[in-house]
Amino acid sequence: MNNLSDIQITRTTQSRLAKTDFDNLVFGETFSDHMFAADYMDGEWKNFQILPYSEINISPSISALHYGQCFFEGLKAYRHIDGKVAVFRTDKNAERFNKSAERLCMPQLPVDIFINSITALVDIDWNWVPSAANHSLYIRPFVFATDPFLGVTPSATYRYMVLAGPTGPYFSKLLKVKIETQYTLAAEGGIGYAKAAGNYGGAMLPARKAAKEGFDQLIWTDAKTHHYIEEMGAANIMFMIDGKLITPSIEGNTILKGITRDSVLTLARGWGVPVEERRVSVNEIIAGIENSTLSDAFGTGTAFTITCIGSLAYNGTEYFLNNPDSGKFSDRVLNKLNQIRRGEAPDEYGWNHVLV
Ligand code: PLP
Ligand code: COI
User: Fold this and answer.
1) pLDDT in tens, 106-158
2) Which of 123, 153, 168 is the C-terminal boundary of a domain?
3) 180 and 329: one domain?
4) Ligand 1 geometric centre to CA of 73 (Å)
5) Positive or negative, the Cα torsion across 251, 256, 257, 258?
6) Taking Cα atoms as reference points, which of 126, 137, 146 lies closest to residue 38?
């Protein structure tokens, strides 16, 4: 698929737009009128279609359901103040999509198919892109194995789909988080760096247990010692200690190479803020809270945007962060990202893929 004319388009005759309450959006609950679909068979991607959002027919024996050959991406389209729409850093998501595909022994998707499928869907559902501050159209591309075969072997056929839905902020409060020292999300050699569906399923039991104890999120630690911080739920994690922005390194392939993480580090470096990507021990963070050198702790992610941590529990003790109302690095970086995404500040790094 080299251009949009290769996509067969069937428009909905019953738009749900007018019935959608844009003032009370819950992440992941509302979908736009259309979806994109393509099939992988005989070694190539074909049957590019945009069709009304609907249920799909699948065989109960597809290997995605049994063996988890399934991965996804998450990105957002924003409404600029001049009314235009731009998708944020699509090229980075395309790159990571193919890293996930490689790790799960699934076919690569050419970058032009990834980008054109998303821009075509956003274009047709243009009116679904919210204009309110902190709102966006969340885009969910995913691939799953479709061979109806219970043998444990990579599928020969796959379906690629893209869904979209308007969303507001994921969290609107400071998070109460727990440092997880019993369960593990990822280990070296595993699939932590891929956006594999199974990673999220495996995180649900520990997250549910933590929620029952009153926590909003888990901070994952390394599989070997549980002494080093990795990521926070579906977000990367950063700390400001002694004026340095510190975040767990992505070396070792246990954590997701977050695109928001990259954007924040790029802005910080551009502002001359010292950045350290390295191992971050739990003890260092607790010491930073206790001696007041830690001024900021936050998660970075597409759905989470920038979400600040209010308190952090470790081995039964809860440590409260000193969170002044303003002047924090996280506020500055969130404001700048919002301005770039809404076309209010120059897009110095070329992150906006503006639809024409
Ligand atoms: N880590 C995990 C496990 C995630 O699911 C996400 C969300 O996509 C992130 C980190 C943040 O990545 P990004 O900023 O690319 O959304
Ligand atoms: C995203 O930020 O796109 C994610 O994938 C998070 C989602 C699992 C809630």
Assistant:
1) 999 999 999 999 999 999 999 999 999 999 999 999 999 999 999 999 999 99
2) 168
3) yes
4) 9
5) negative
6) 146
Q: What is the pTM (predicted TM-score) of this model?
A: 0.97
Please state the atom number of ligand 2 nearest to the C-alpha of residue 74.
3
* Residue 82, pLDDT score: 96
Average pLDDT of the chain to the nearest whole number = 95
Residues within 6 Å of ligand 2 by CB? 74, 200, 234, 301-303
Residue 74 has, within 13 A of its CA and on its CB side, a CA count of 24
Q: Tell which one of 256, 267, 304 to mutate to probe ligand 1, the residue whose CB is within 8 A of the most ligand atoms.
A: 256
Q: CA 209, 194, 254, 175: dihedral to nearest 10 degrees?
A: -40
Question: Within this chain, do residues 185 and 313 fall inside the same structural domain, yes or no?
Answer: yes
77-97 residue pLDDT tens: 999 999 999 999 999 999 999
Look-up of token digits 């039991």: 205
Q: Are residues 303 and 333 in the same domain?
A: yes
| Both structure tokens of 2 | 């080299």
157 close to 35: Cβ distance less than 8 angstroms? no
Minimal-distance CA residue to ligand 1 atom 2: 234
Is 323's pLDDT higher than 90?
A: no
